[in-house]
Amino acid sequence: MRTIGATEFKQHCLQILDTVDEEGIVITKRGKPVAQLTRWNRPKTSAHLIGAMRGVMHITGDILSTGIEWDAES
């Protein structure tokens, strides 16, 4: 993993953002690590999940009820 000082990061921030790899960069301040910069991996959208379970699950009974009858008077 590449290491870079905070001052150098501040001076060349935009250039560094273009060159960051999967491993990332550790940013140090006075020789001590303070931050880690890694490439952003865009999460997959959930659009491919819509309808994925169609035909696999079946609803039986009342989905809004626990199935237990109770009396509020007792």
Tell me about this structure.
With 74 residues, this protein is of the alpha+beta class. Helices cover 18% and strands 20% of the residues. The chain is built from two helices and three strands. It has helices at 6-11, 13-19, and strands spanning 2-5, 25-29, 32-37. Strands 1-2-3 form a three-stranded mixed β-sheet. Strand 2 (25-29) and strand 3 (32-37) form a beta hairpin. The chain is elongated, with a radius of gyration of 27 Å. The N and C termini lie far apart (68 Å).
Which helices and strands appear, and what pairs or packs with what?
Blueprint: E1 2-5, H1 6-11, H2 13-19, E2 25-29, E3 32-37
Parallel strand pairs: 1-2
Antiparallel strand pairs: 2-3
Strand order of the largest sheet: 1-2-3
Classify the helix fraction into a percent range. 10-25%
How much of the sequence lies in strands comes to 15-25%
User: What is the strand tally?
Assistant: 3
Q: Given the structure, what is the number of helices?
A: 2
Average pLDDT score: 87
C-alpha geometry = elongated
Radius of gyration: 27 Å
N/C terminus separation: 68 Å
H/E order of the elements? EHHEE
Report on the biggest sheet.
3 strands, mixed
Class by SSE composition:
alpha+beta
Uncertain segments are none
